[in-house]
Amino acid sequence: MQIGVLSEPSDRRVALVPDVIEQLCQAGNEVMVESGSGDQSFISDQQFTEAGARVTSKQEVLSACNLLISINKLPLEVYGSLNDQSVVISSFQPFNDKEISKSLSNSNITVFSMDMIPRITLAQSMDVLSSMASIAGYQAVLEAATSLPRYFPMLTTAAGTIPPAKVLVLGAGVAGLQAIATAKRLGGVVEAFDTRLAAKEEVESLGAKFVMVEGATDDKEAGGYAVEQTEEYKQRQQELIQEKAIKADVIITTAQLRGRPAPLLVTEDTVKSMKAGSVIVDLAASTGGNCALTKDNETVLVHNVTIIGDSDLAQRVPMHASQLYSKNIFNFLKVLINEDGSLNLDLENEILKSSCIAHDGQDRL
Question: Using the 8-state DSSP alphabet, how is residue 302 labeled?
Fold first, then answer.
């Protein structure tokens, strides 16, 4: 199998790291990497070469590889230049881009989207959403701590005692749980809200207080995403969140609805009621944001509250983000590539069936 990796101008990460490339080469595959792909992850071309990869030009990677791996979807013309029957692995987010699978099906290639891998026990080691969300939750707290005009921990000094920062985490999925753990390590007092009652035990095990609104719709088949709630529930939810937000120094929001705009959790009235100098970090910014005043990829100061809109904080930690993504890919390839090096395109396999969005000229969504 000839596996290709290209540099991604809008991303600091790289899809395969040397340790994983070495394992792929030992298994009999050939790996080609575009020169400079790892520069922003602090991985040199020499390290790729020492791992067994062939470092070359973008054009040669595209002309020679029959399996192309990337982190983000690349321009459509890139896929059009691939050989027939090539396989592409990336994160296409087809629920947010309704036309992408149709566009890709126009080429005679097979396309797998890593964000579509089912969240089942068998596929945990391939779950890029969880890998990146964990980093985002960690980084969100660091961003908040940097912007907050006060300490996170309680300090007792000769000049008096400084109380700890109060942190409210909205959404206790992978990102939310990591945010809770990080905020606790920094000395914050943490409360967390989630519509899923199952999250209560995990939240409390990390030392945070679980905030619950009765009557939530809890869909266990939602793959870790939030689900749409009734208007009555949303009203009670906003009232409780506002009550908690008034006392909070930091709010971290993580709730997203798959294929739909993110639920509105923090209204402008809530922001107005917050303490001056408070910080909101909105990890759902790319799908509209959980805060009414969020601007995607921007940091704004509104009503004396700093609002950081960033859904891609994993890029801030490119070395470990690349390492985790690469390992997710490696585990996926164990399913996709047979021991003899041939492709396993058994689309009845639950993992391959769920993640394949285009095959043999057909849109599979």
Answer: E
Residues 216 and 139 in one domain: yes
Residue 128 lies in a domain: no
Q: Enter the pTM of the model.
A: 0.90
Number of separate domains in the chain: 2
* pLDDT above 90 as % of the chain: 78
Range of the domain at 65: 2-116+318-363
- Per-residue pLDDT, averaged over 242-253, amounts to 95
Beta strands in the chain (DSSP E): 2-5, 30-34, 54-56, 67-72, 87-91, 110-113, 155-157, 160-162, 166-170, 189-193, 209-211, 250-253, 279-282, 298-302, 305-309, 356-359, 362-363
| Residue 221 pLDDT | 53
20 lies in the same domain as 101: yes
Active site residues: 119, 124, 127, 130, 225
The pLDDT score that the predictor gives to residue 142 is 98
Q: Is residue 122 in some structural domain?
A: no
